[in-house]
Each structure stands twice: as structure tokens, then as C-alpha cells.
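for the writeup, i need someone to sanity check this before i put it in the appendix. the sequnce is what the collaborator sent (i think, or maybe the updated version? ugh). structure was predicted straight from it, no edits. if anything looks off just tell me and ill rerun, i have time this weekend
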Amino acid sequence: MDNPAKHSITPVITSRTSSSLPTAQYIVPDCFRSYRGLIALQSTRNGGISDGAFSSLNLGRNTGDRPEQIEKNIQRLCASAAINPECLVTSRQVHGTAILFAEKPGNYDGYDAFITDRKNLFLCIFTADCYPVLLYDPRHQASGAVHAGWKGSAGGIVTKTIEAMKKRFNTLPEECLAYIGTGISREAYEVGREVALEFPTGSYQCTPDRNNEEKYVLDLAEVNNQQLLASGIPPANIERSPFCSVGDSNLFFSHRRDHGNTGRMVSLIGVTQNERA
């Protein structure tokens, strides 16, 4: 695992600068930093008010956390990122491949990816081991956000989202940037044979520390990286998180590590109406 001090973090409270990663609320991908008006981030588990298994910045409404604490956490994150919480686009994710062209904020049902070219809309993906993938088309100022668990990844949701952006916005993949956020690493993601065989050979291998042909480790980050490359996004335009949601327990929630009793991070992307430097 990379040294956390090497990675850029936006301060939790801008008036009291703190670039210490173990207490930061969110990570800003370097690949998006040079674009005026673009806001893109992945939250950590830190900087909120939830307690117990949901400590502390739990943003997932489909958890056992108290609703009032979740709402305060959302407000806190949005204030830190200078986002109006009424401009969020969210969904009850179902591990499918349905994609919504978002034209207005709201909480939708059954979508695992969003695309938009509207200003002041922030596309939100919630995760706790699944991979968030953020996309940006600078020519058309169009954004995409993808929830890529194993089912969505097996269904090619990243590829389908890029195709949707091409049809809707005339996006050119070779001009796009992509961020594969933090999820469960290959070393931590053991699956059964029926799941492994949903993916191309090379995406998985037999679990190394046991002689059991029915258990495999699956590299979902690489699966999604290959989908980005196959869609035409250049390797130099793809950034990958160095962290693992299971292993980096001080930074991230993990459904597998915490046996389902855990919170959720958010990864979001959108372009502001008034471009900022």
C-alpha cells in the first residue's frame, strides 16, 4: 500500500488547513484538478458525527445509522466541498447496469450510473467495497459516475456509460479522463467459481494460500481499467486509487471487512455554474 502522505487531500475545514490523510473528509483525484469549475471527490470515513460501526462520516441512507446523523454528515461534506446539498443526484443502487441522464437533482431508484452535461448537478455513487468510477469529458463539460460492483462490472457498466456519453454528448473517449476510486483490492476479494467465471481470464486466479479450486481472488479494479481502455480512454488519462477499502480501515468503510454492519462513502462529480479556479 502506498504511503498516504504522498496523496493530495483537500482540507476538511478550509479555514483550519489540515492535509493529514487519516483525518481528511475526502480525496480529490489529481487527474481532475486542473479543470476550472469541476468538482470531483471520494469521501473517506472521517470527519462526520456518526458513531459505532458507522463512525464517522457515514453518508449511506440504506444503513442502520440514524437518519438525522446521515443528513448532518451530508451537510458537513457538502459545506466542506462548497456544494449545495440540494444539487445532488443519488439513487437506490441495485447492482444493475441502468444509466440515468440526469437533468435535475433528486433521489432516483434503480440506477447504478449517471451522466449529465447540466451545471450544478453532482452525480453521487455510494460504496463500501464496490468500485466508484468517475468520468469527465472536458470538451462538452459532461460527467459520468458509475457504481461498479461485481455484477455491474460483469455487465460492462463502465463501457455502457461511456457509450451513453458518446450518444448523448458526442463524447470522444480519447479526450476523457477517468478515476477508478477506492474499492476492495484483489488481495482481499475472494469469490466463488461462479463469480470468477463471469470475467475474462486474467482477471482472477486461484486463491494463493489454499489448495481449493473453488476459491479465487478477483481484481475488479483491473476489470474496470480494461473496460476504460477498451472504450478508448488513453492509459495516461486514467487514475487509480492506491488504497483498499478492506485494508485501509482508518480511511474507508468495508462491507466485507465489517460483515455488512458499516457505513458508506460517496464519490461525486459535477461542474459548477460559476467556474472556479
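The chain has one domain: 6-13+23-188+239-271. Residues 1-20 have pLDDT under 50 and may be disordered.
thx in advance!!
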